[in-house]
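FIELD: query
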Amino acid sequence: MAHSKTRANDGKITYPPGVKEISDKISKEEMVRRLKMVVKTFMDMDQDSEEEKELYLNLALHLASDFFLKHPDKDVRLLVACCLADIFRIYAPEAPYTSPDKLKDIFMFITRQLKGLEDTKSPQFNRYFYLLENIAWVKSYNICFELEDSNEIFTQLYRTLFSVINNGHNQKVHMHMVDLMSSIICEGDTVSQELLDTVLVNLVPAHKNLNKQAYDLAKALLKRTAQAIEPYITNFFNQVLMLGKTSISDLSEHVFDLILELYNIDSHLLLSVLPQLEFKLKSNDNEERLQVVKLLAKMFGAKDSELASQNKPLWQCYLGRFNDIHVPIRLECVKFASHCLMNHPDLAKDLTEYLKVRSHDPEEAIRHDVIVSIVTAAKKDLLLVNDPLLNFVRERTLDKRWRVRKEAMMGLAQIYKKYSLQSEAGKEASKQIAWIKDKLLHIYYQNSIDDRLLVERIFAQYMVPHNLETNERMKCLYYLYATLDSNAVKALNEMWKCQNLLRHQVKDLVDLIKQPKTDASSKSIFSKVMVITRNLPDPGKAQDFMKKFTQVLEDDNKIRHQLEMLVSPTCSCKQAEGCVREITKKLGNPKQPTNPFLEMIKFLLERIAPVHIDTESISALIKQVNRSIDGTADDEDEGVPTDQAIRAGLELLKVLSFTHPISFHSAETFESLLACLKMDDEKVAEAALQIFKNTGGKIEEDFTHIRSALLPVLHHKAKKGPPRQAKYAIHCIHAIFSSKETQFAQIFEPLHKSLDPGNLEHLITPLVSIGHIALLAPDQFAAPLKSLVATFIVKDLLMSDRMPGKKTTKLWVPDEEVSPETLVKIQAIKMMVRWLLGMKNNHSKSGTSTLRLLTTILHSDGDLTEQGKISKPDMSRLRLAAASAIVKLAQEPCYHEIITLEQYQLCALAINDECYQVRQAFAQKLHKGLSRLRLPLEYMAICALCAKDPVKERRAHARQCLVKNINVRREYLKQHAAVSEKLLSLLPEYVVPYTIHLLAHDPDYVKVQDIEQLKDIKECLWFILEILMSKNENNSHAFIRKMVENIKQTKDVQGPEDPKMNEKLYTVCDIAMNIIMSKSTTYSLESPKDPVLPARYFTQPDKNFSNTKNYLPPEMKSFFTPGKPKAANVLGAVNKPLSSAGKQSQSKSSRMETISNASSNSNPSSPGRIKGRLDSTEMDHSENEEYTMASPLPGKKNDKRDDSEIVRSDLEKPRNRKKIITDPEEKLGVDDLNKLGQEPKLRSQRGRKRAAAVSESEEPQWPEEKRLKEDVLESEDEQNSPPKKGRRGRPPKSAVGSTPKEEPIVKTPKRGRKKAVPVKPVEEEEEEQEEEEEQEEEEEEEERQTGNMEQKPKGRQYKTPRKAQQRRPARSKQTASKENESSEEMDAFQSSSPVQDIAQEVAMEEEEGSNVRGMGRISCRLQQKIIATKEDVNVGVIKISEDPLVRGLQHVLEKS
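FIELD: result
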């Protein structure tokens, strides 16, 4: 080496053989040629060629001169770079260059040449590749580790390689680049931040998208060097995340993107970084927390991620962000849930509880995205979501916000179609979501037209897709109908009914448009447009659009023709789709993509288009039923028993026969129905008879062979068939045959002759048939019917007791245990009523006599003869039949006029009957007559007596009925402005005079100044006034006050000269006045109009008499606590659905705790039991639940009760009830019954039997003083709660013959009165006869079900001990603002739809989702304030402020 150095020092350059000197004196081409030879020489040399190394040392030094390094020609530079690379290879490990500056220049030169790798199509690319391969293999750049400027060299190299890499490079180029760069990282002492940035910048999304190959190169490099580079990456994130030194790198703002990319590349790179993220999740900065949440959502949700299982503390910390105070963070967490559910089903359990809380989030967007996340996962695979998650979606179908409800409903519909209709996951999945179809149809009970329209759209597109082939569509409908629950069936029937009604309205509109234009026709068109508008969303806009559409129909004959075809009864499903397509095409405008007018018309067309049912469909449905009858259908495969399928199929056909009668007109259909008549199943035969009644109008003309086969069957059914079939057979004959008089005569005569009181079991069918003949053809058999009623019905049946009843203490038994004689008597009463309804006049005084008979039955407790032969359950049945008959007759104006006030008051007492089932069934009859506007307004006053019902559910149900009836009347008055002259019979406020009069004559009200009785009267008045005063429309509070004042200026018509009777009336008026004054702030304003009092109840006001006396005892004043009444749509303390007649509305709890009428003591409720009901049926969490608390307040451990729990504790307080005393019973003499021809002076003194007395030791009373003190914390005045007394009793029966001195009987003077005739809507008048028949049918169905009512035994009523009462906190007043109810759910089943009688199953189902708004929320003062304290804002949770009012409440509760 010493020799070589000497030679090098000589400065003589030795060139390879054949290569002349290379200097600036030669041309470029020659220089390139010579350099190529040098390159070839160096390529062939290896490290062992010592002589050659020494020989060419000066040449190596010469090639590193500035002349070559800065040569302008790129080919020269490339060749020199290749030589230098080989020189480093040959002379390794010691380079011939010793100067650090020279080494830097050389490596920077080589780096610059590597840019040539960019052009893969260049002719020199192979030399560039050789250069890369050489320096990578030799690791030439490692020489630079000792240089001060090494970082600059490496950084430049990295930048160059990342910039030149592209998709033209093969795997070898990629590999050599990785080798070159990884050697620098792995063998170097350190990695500078600048160098690290050069690598990491390629992972930033913006760069990644620009150069995917650079990203792949960086990814490969990081994987190769993970262990070596991890400390530097950790240091970088530590500086940025923990110390906040964002200036150390330009990548600081992309730190979360980098973490995600690094985690995806190799999770080991972040072993020390992830704990830093847990700290960042608790940052004070909302935006920073949001960024970390977004990052972790991607990391946890990635398909193959195991982060949740590997780092459980971080996962738990992340889950805590679901309860973050910042809305966007909660929103991000919810969005992440769907990816997590789809990619990590094992985490569903952890997510469920957090999603439950978020499904009640105050923010609409969050509740919406909870649904989207769950539905998205469910649509991918139903196994990914558990039942609780699906239940969250189910609850949100009752959300307050339309957007959330719509998303929930559509999501459930899509899930149902995929897994139930298309069976993509098998039968198990189909069973799991079988509830969806019922739930979706239940939503049709909602008030909102948007909900109902969406249900119709879902039914047509997802439940029974209209685009299916006819047979498949009908099969789908057939099995759907067979598996729906009873309430869903009602909803579906109502849907078809509404669509059919709207179709008729549109048809009428088209017919009016076709008529010549006149003022009258224009008014009719406008009226029809208004009716149609109410069936569309946003009635305001819909009205304008419908007017425009009417104009289009007048101008465009083609559109009118298409619409006419669409609403035609003969329109087929295919024609309907074509008509809708043509109309929308003509109305559409391509230049206007969003056309609100077209959208509204589409809504209308969707509702009226018969896309499911036509003649072909009915034929297919009949064939499906026949296959079930023959046993060739797939009933078992569909999970439906054959009998159930056949019955459901006939019920479906029956419903469709109402809405699509023309579609049944085919011989094949009628023949199949004829075969069904001969089946043993009574339900099937009944349905077939009803179908014939609805569709058989053309049978006599067009299907004579059907006529001849049907007639004998109908005759047989009418004479010897079951009672219901006999009824339908009579109606079939009336509807189908023109010779109905002859047919009726052939049935009536033999039945009349065969009536035998000794053969009771064979009397029911003849009585039913004769009753319906009397209803349909009263004039044809007037004489024999009158004789039949007088002799046989009254004398032989009603006034004779042949067989003694079974001795029992029960008040009610099922139908099968009722004695045959009682069943016959009930049918006899019904037959008399039908006879009178058929006559519709009282010329022969038959109505008066019948009413006397019915009231005598009521007065004698159902034992008309008073021989004591009738059992108590049978007496209950007869009382119910008599009261129901009076209500039925009151719906006919001619009979309403002759019902005396005493008879009306006696009938009203049935609402407080000692038997629970009698009260329940009578209330249903009353509600049905009132809701159809058939019963006069005074019958609504009877509802006030429901406040005395001891059963909480009955009171709640009565209140709900009352709300509906008041709303029905108000809505009717809005829609029919022309009926203002009949306000006395329609305006709900006019029920107040009737209520006051009824309560003044309450038989329990004996002593005028009796405090306990006055308190009861106050409860009854408030029961009515609370709902009436919930709104102050048109200054109604002042109007009610004026009415009460006017009553005090009149006298009671029943006893105008009786001072005690009038004093009672004035006392009740004073109670009403005090309620109005304490609950209203506007009562003192001027009344909008002067009220008109019913002349039948009150004398004309005496202008010379001014009654300003206060009749209330002074101690009553303390019972009138100021406070606002609840909103009208609130269901009071219990949000119960209207139960079907004969079925009690019960929760799971109340079902277990229901007691039966096991004895004459029939009080089915006790304070202890009420608690159970409250827990399960009354209480419901608000939709706006507070967020999950991080920790309780100091000193309040476990005090995490929310609003609903506070309310619950208040409602569970025992209610104070009066001590109940039993009245003695006295018998009505048999002789008195012989005076039925004369009107007995029956005062409504028939009281109600009282429950057995309970000792005060057993029932400690809650002192009034304490209750008044606690009113401060109660949201409702305890006095305004439902009553606390037991069952009301009946007074001694001796009252019939003699009257106590203090209650003189005054015969009602025959004064004129302003008739309160119920007004029927226009639609009802058109189909009056049909609805009468429907009503009759429904009533009979109710009565049949009544026998299956749950029985409630007697039992003493125990109250909660006083100490327990004191431990329970009271409720605060309901002053929470609307903003705090942003997501309050809509009340389920509080619809104005006629379909209101919803069974308990639905109530139980909806209790989770719906909000019991009537119970009020906690006061704003007591609400948990949402603040982010300095200590806890780091974790973004919500704390309860140490508000003094909260502390004050706690102090009160602890003290009590």
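FIELD: remark
The radius of gyration is 45 Å.
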